[in-house]
Specification:
The structure is a single chain. 40% of the residues lie in helices and 16% in strands. It contains 13 helices and twelve strands. Helix 2 packs parallel to helix 12, helix 5 crosses helix 6 and helix 6 packs across helix 7. It is globular, with a radius of gyration of 20 Å. Bound molecules: NADP nicotinamide-adenine-dinucleotide phosphate. The site of NADP nicotinamide-adenine-dinucleotide phosphate has 29 residues, from strand 12 and helix 12.
């Protein structure tokens, strides 16, 4: 589907995102915006993963994104496969409204991901036939590039997906472009071949930066950076940044990692599964050393934390609602730039914006709460 409006030029800048933060002074608390990699990033980001691929959900996401931005959230997270491209298009519709109103392109940090094979808007009757016609017959990828029957990070595929995402979102440049769950490939691709694929992907993404189509890239992961180093899906952040340095030199643009982090999945802080310069480190420590900003996904564990938050945490945070506690925990964690929350209901946007109006928990208090959470 071709975007009905011309692509909006520009990208998020320090000046623009500072202007965004300044709009919300007094409405959001000090500490809600954090400066990373030349951007003022809100501590809560709007996610767009869950939901049916239908028109009602499209409208809900469009309205929720508008409300989130109008309330002080400037980090918007999508992926081309979320709801079969419909989440990106819902964000695109929200952006068209926001840009024709009060907001400028340089105030918003737009993120998306590529890697999973993705139909176009609805499920084709014969998915194999669709992927053959759309990609294999055009030599965008070969059958050997597919892993686990669903994942591909071949250069021409990433280029194709980036073009589609730019059109879906209606913008000429994306601020962060993630390889989506690259560890999916490690289930069947030997590590040496995996690293070769990551290297080719990073070279492609460095070229996309040079072409002005993205500003930075990253890896959005599920198990890779949380697991034990002996696990098949484990990734070393030091090794991935080494591959980025080979692709883009010391000024490479691999700058963000997304990983689950919440009250039930605290590994990024707790598990010393990384090594930097021969020293053992947690993911948070490794990311700090290697100049990578961490973005938490599944901040509420998809609401499964409701009913599971202890009294100690309620008391320490001074918040009664379990999911409020969960979000405050994530955005207060040292080394976590922002916590993404999927939100398509306006009442949820409003509830999460109330947390943006509270300062993150001071480090000492966080440590006590963290000890209690374990
Ligand atoms: N590997 C990856 O790359 C990866 C994996 C997972 C997630 N992510 C990203 O991270 C984002 C967040 O993760 P997620 O969406 O899976 O899970 P989540 O943010 O932990 O939970 C989302 C769920 O919480 C509900 N919710 C939001 N605010 C609420 C509130 N204040 N009170 C009660 N319920 C509330 C939402 O409902 P409504 O939607 O109905 O408002 C939705 O059902 C995703 O949207 C996606 O952008 C990335």
């Amino acid at each position: 589907m071709i975007s009905p409006f011309p692509l909006k030029t520009g990208f998020a800048t320090l000046e623009g995102t500072r202007k965004f933060a300044a709009r919300f002074e007094g409405r959001t608390a000090p500490g809600h915006f954090r400066e990373r990699h030349g951007l003022m990033i809100s501590s809560i980001g709007a996610g767009t993963y869950l939901g049916e691929p239908d028109a009602a959900t499209d409208t809900a996401y469009t309205e929720a994104i508008c409300a989130a931005v109008r309330g002080g959230i400037n980090l918007i997270d999508s992926a081309i496969n979320y709801r079969l491209q419909r989440s990106e298009r819902s964000v695109g519709a929200a952006l068209a409204g926001l840009f024709s109103g009060d907001f400028a392109r340089d105030e918003l940090i737009l993120c998306t991901k590529a890697g999973f094979l993705t139909p176009d808007g609805d499920m084709p009757a014969d998915a194999n036939d669709y992927f053959y016609r759309e990609f294999i017959s055009k030599s965008i990828f070969a059958v050997e590039d597919i892993a686990a029957g669903c994942h591909c990070m071949a250069p021409r595929y990433l280029e194709d997906q980036l073009e589609r995402s730019r059109r879906n979102l209606g913008v000429s440049c994306l601020d962060i472009f993630y390889l989506h769950n690259p560890e999916t490939q490690l289930g069947e691709v030997p590590r040496e071949e995996f690293n070769r694929r990551v290297s080719a992907a990073f070279q492609t993404l460095e070229s996309a930066v040079t072409a002005g189509k993205i500003r930075a890239y990253g890896m959005a992961t599920w198990t890779a950076f949380r697991s034990d180093p002996r696990a098949q899906e484990y990734l070393s952040l030091e090794q991935m940044t080494g591959i980025a340095r080979q692709a883009g030199g010391n000024e490479h643009h691999f700058r963000f990692v997304q990983l689950p982090f919440n009250l039930a999945m605290p590994e990024a802080l707790m598990r010393p599964n990384q090594t930097v310069g021969g020293k053992t480190a947690s993911m948070v420590q490794a990311a700090r050393e290697l100049g990578i900003a961490l973005i938490a996904s599944a901040s509420l564990l998809q609401t499964h934390l409701a009913g599971k938050v202890s009294e100690v945490i309620h008391a320490t945070l001074g918040l009664r609602n379990d999911l409020d506690c969960a979000l405050q925990f994530v955005r207060s964690a040292p080394g976590i730039t922002a916590g993404l929350v999927g939100m398509k209901r306006l009442e949820h946007v409003r509830a999460n914006l109330k947390i943006a109006a509270i300062p993150p928990v001071p480090q000492e208090q966080f440590r006590r709460m963290f000890a209690a959470a374990r």
